[in-house]
Amino acid sequence: MDKKITTPLNNVSVEKLKVGDTVLISGTIYTARDAAHKRLIELIDKNQKLPIEIENQIIYYVGPTPAKPGIPIGSAGPTTSYRMDAYTPQLLDRGLKGMIGKGLRSQEVIDSIVKNKAVYFAAIGGAAALIAKSIVKSEIVTYEDLGSEAIRKLEIVDFPAIVVIDSKGNNLYDMGPKEYLQFLIKGGSEKIDLDNFSI
């Protein structure tokens, strides 16, 4: 069963999310990719105010296509998250609670997720048009010169995602293959040392 969550997040709502949970997110989220992240970190390094309030918020790693007439946004599928890894710990230290993207994260990011009680969600790559249907409003709030990578404020209703790294550091990308391997041996007497198994 999908868990319904609403932004802004907080420690209580984040700690209830467990790796593998499917969620439907509603509320306000922000978009940002690597170019925008770089600018945000430059502001942090200069002790300057950020153009968006990130405390308890979610950033979606997306560069949407132009919207067609009558709809708020074009296709809006997730981009690869590791491109933001160099910037993410500083944003988490500033209160960011969630990220939506696809793919693996660095150990430094995972450690920062645990430290700051945050969560990393995966959106489904290849389902950009479907995801866009859950976005009911989109407005550029800063860095318009970046085009599709401008920071947008999105209003979303039942945005589908999966918890892939929870606030305890449990990582679906590590657990999934091992659990699938255990499933394949069908509970027989032969047991595999999953802690030392690699794929």
UniProtKB/TrEMBL annotation:
Domain Fe-S hydro-lyase tartrate dehydratase beta-type catalytic: 10-174
Tree of life domain: Bacteria
Keywords, comma-separated and alphabetical: Lyase
Ranges annotated as spanning the membrane: none
The keyword Lyase is annotated on this UniProt entry: yes
InterPro entries associated with the record: Fe-S_hydro-lyase_TtdB-typ_cat (IPR004647), Fe-S_hydroAse_TtdB_cat_sf (IPR036660)
Pfam families: Fumerase_C
The family this protein is said to belong to: Belongs to the class-I fumarase family.
Protein name, per record: Fe-S-containing hydro-lyase
Source organism: Clostridium brassicae
